[in-house]
Amino acid sequence: MTAPDNASQPTSIGAVSTGIDGPVRTTDVIDLLEAVERIDGVAAVSEQGLLALEHDRESVRHLWLAPEGQLAGYAQVDDTGSAELCVHPAQRNRGMGRQLVEALQRTADPLTIWAHGDLPAAQALARVTGLRKTRELLQMAYELPPAAIRVPEAPVGAAVRPFRPGKDEEAWVALNSKAFVDHPEQGRMTVTDLEQRQATSWFDPSLLWLAHLPEEPQSLLACCPVRTTVRST
Question: CATH for 15-129?
């Protein structure tokens, strides 16, 4: 992903704005992200980052490199300094990753950059740009037969039901904010964030389970979101 200090440098940062505009379209970035995922085997940006791109959030700034009009590298950073970036597989080892990091460093202070998959290229980029690991996010999964995925039995003193679109958004966001008050990303979820996730292909309201006080369905106590994936054979 990175090049030695004496390597020739590509074009300078093509744009810094609060939306994808000018010579680069959102669809161009989506194509880039898909190309990166095919080679790296892991998503180039998080779901939050993808939604920020698709919905053009004002709190997110977008940066890109497009030498000769061809999108080669992309980065985004939100108003907390949390950033993500990627470089097209065919354009790596030309210093573009380093350019994007340096542009992000000029854009946000403090700055944190997510490295999805902690791949060797990301580790090398971190070394040459002076970044160090401060957090590690683990993704865990458990294999279950379809018949086992059902609303769980309620504990004593509570009732459990599935999420109701159009009725539970505000109550869920309030619960989520309390549960993740110290979490820098999850705790900032808004009703708009939730509604955007409801519009994605993976969201299933019957698999977002809510525990609440008996006879008080809006008095939420806990939630358990379940996301299912189909294993390819």
Answer: 3.40.630.30
